[in-house]
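Minimal example, chain plus zinc ion.
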Amino acid sequence: MPVAIRNRTRRQVIIILTHAPFCETSGECVCEHVGARLVPSARTIPALGTLGGLSDAVSHVAKVRSLASAGLLELRTQQQPADRAEPAERAEPAEKTGHKRPRRGER
Ligand SMILES: [Zn+2]
């Protein structure tokens, strides 16, 4: 389930998605491969902003854990309405255009 991180500070926070534990936990490597080296990718959370659509493996990243336990970041699991469609909703296909699901970063 994707998670959103809210930055409660007035500074942007850069999270480095280190291969271990992030990629290893999420099962999907988001690093850049430079020769034999893995260069971890990073995400920026704007000051007082929210970044969503992250793998829940982000909660294993040491910096996220420490900032979250200090109350500077807030992690929330995101519900995916499309996956929880109620049977009543299927009877009306007219409503389809309204939803845009955020894409997962695939690389
Ligand atoms: Zn990786």
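The pocket of zinc ion is lined by residues 19, 23, 29-31, 38 (CB under 6 Å). The radius of gyration is 16 Å.
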